[in-house]
Amino acid sequence: MIRLDERLETIARWVLEAAGGSDAPRAADVGCDHGYLTAALLERCPRLTMLASDVSGPSLEKARRLLASLGLEERAVLREADGLDALKGPVCAVVIAGMGAQTILRILRAGREKLGGAAVIVQANTDLPELRAGLAGMGLGIEREAFCEAAGRRYVTLLAREAAPCVLGEREALLGAAARGVRKEGQRGYFSWQRSVRVRELERIAPLGTDRAAQRIRHSSRELTWIAEALGMKTCTVSELERLVGEIAPYGLAEEWDNVGLLLGRRGAPVTRAVVALDLTQEAVDAAKALGAQAIVTHHPIMFSARKRVTDDDREGRLMLELAEAGIAHIAAHTNLDSAPGGVNDTLMAALGAQNIRGEGFVRAGDLPGGMTLGRLAAQARTRLHGEVRVYGAEDTPVHVLGCCSGAGGGEVALARALGADCFITGEIRHHEALDAADSGMCVLEAGHYETENPVCEVLRTALQNAADALEYNLTVFCPEVKPFGR
User: Fold this and answer.
1) pLDDT per residue as tens digits for the range 395-453
2) pLDDT at residue 21 in the model
């Protein structure tokens, strides 16, 4: 017996149901390719005859050989033809699957008069909303939908019959029966996948900055809202986003002098999209606005020093005003994210391949399996941190335990040494701090403030997205590539 995947199995079941109690049912497989579906249907229903057609002669020959090997060739008519040109006489079902929506609609429009009362079973690899709208417009009403996964892809199969033509709105064309509250098996997985497809599209086109990209972003944003409704996702507020950040990097870990948490924005405002960046820069604000984000989460905070006025006379004031005007909230996780497990310093150590990471506060140490020379470690840091590295020490010095304090951490050398480190990496180190390190026998790598901290942004984005997904929040978190110094 021919075994079909989940996608073709649904189609086969619907064809057999359409055949019903007829003594001599006949169905058509348009674009039959290898002929597996045709063969499986003939095996399962001895009363059935099939018309199998394809525009490809070689594909049709494969189907012919398959049917002959199973002794089914006498109950099948194979025709090399385009679309419904091969259809002669009435059939109980017409199958058109494995094509793009535009191709399926072209075939149906060209042979519309040949369909009669047949069940039209279609499955498009692309542009499902276009397929739904096109079927409705030509008077083929969708009666059934089935969702499945096969070979790592998600599919929707539709069964339509003769009906009065109608116009589908964008929402119903996208959601189908779900727009009316109908729930189907596999529907949730399909819409979750569709949501991820649109998020990837937003990430891809947002940096383009063109009018066409902006139009597509607005369209995708509407679709994301409708998909979230279909999934029954909950609304996330600025306050809830602040709480999620605090669960990843507890605010109690922040230094007394720091400025963390919600720094600008309305707590009750809804957030469907958020951006993670190292700093609140014009580039980060522009990226958030392009994505339609309502919040920016950064490592470095604004208002780090006291302000008596917010005007457009300085960089920070301009950015604060722009955020307020755009309705974008700002949340910061600074020294709390430095100290948090899995935070800035743990991320830096992991990026450089350290294991058995230990330490607390701002300082970490970890073992380098097998050890390496200082020169090799510096080269590895340049590659993985994407920046220049200044080396303090002889490049042939062996290194077995690496210590770190990201950012401006040059004053923490002694704490790293106490954890057993024989080399220390930081973003910035003062001249006298480097001299003291050398005097104590420590090598130092100065890899840049931005470069040693920026890797945490993607880690924070992933953690926030996972937390939001677990709570079923309609929140998508982005981490656009933002280079404040143009490199």
Assistant:
1) 999 999 999 999 999 999 999 999 999 999 999 999 999 999 999 999 999 999 999 99
2) 76
Q: How far from each other are the two terminal CA atoms of the chain, in whole angstroms?
A: 61
Q: Residue 132 corresponds to which tokens in the numbers above?
A: 């739904």
Question: For every residue of the chain, which 3-state class applies, written as one string?
Answer: CCCCCHHHHHHHHHHHHHHCCCCCCEEEEECCCCCHHHHHHHHHCCCCEEEEEECCHHHHHHHHHHHHHCCCHHHEEEEECCHHHHCCCCCCEEEEEEEEHHHHHHHHHHCHHHCCCCEEEEEEEECHHHHHHHHHHCCEEEEEEEEEEECCEEEEEEEEEECCCCCCCHHHHHHHHHHHCCCCCCHHHHHHHHHHHHHHHHHHHHHHCCHHHHHHHHHHHHHHHHHHHHHCCECEEHHHHHHHHHHHCCHHHCCCCCCCEEEECCCCCEECEEEEECCCCHHHHHHHHHHCCCEEEECCCCCCCCCCCCCCCCHHHHHHHHHHHHCCEEEECCHHHHHCCCCHHHHHHHHCCCEEEECCCCCEEEEEEEEEEHHHHHHHHHHHHCCCCEEECCCCCEEEEEEEECCCCHHHHHHHHHCCCCEEEECCCCHHHHHHHHHCCCEEEECCHHHHHCCHHHHHHHHHHHHHHHCCECCEEECCCCCCCCC
User: For the whole model, what pTM was predicted?
Assistant: 0.83
Task: Tell me which amino acid residue 52 is.
Answer: A
- Residues 20 and 93 sit within 8 Å (Cβ to Cβ): no
| Strands 364-373 and 355-358, bridge-based pairing | antiparallel
Q: What does the alpha-carbon distance between residue 355 and residue 182 come to, in Å, rounded to a whole number?
A: 51
pLDDT at 487 over 70: no
C-alpha distances (whole Å) from 263 to each of 182, 260, 305 are 42, 7, 13
Token output for 142: 């969708």
Residue with token string 């700002």? 330
Contact 311, 291 (CB under 8 A): no
Find out whether 44 and 13 touch, Cβ atoms under 8 Å. no
Give the C-alpha separation, 119 to 208, whole Å.
Answer: 44
Q: Are 337 and 243 in contact (CB under 8 A)?
A: no
Distance of CA 111 to the CA centre of its chain: 39
d(CA 53, CA 64): 11
Q: Which pair of tokens denotes residue 279?
A: 């700093």
Output the six-digit token pair for 323: 């955020």
Length of the chain: 487
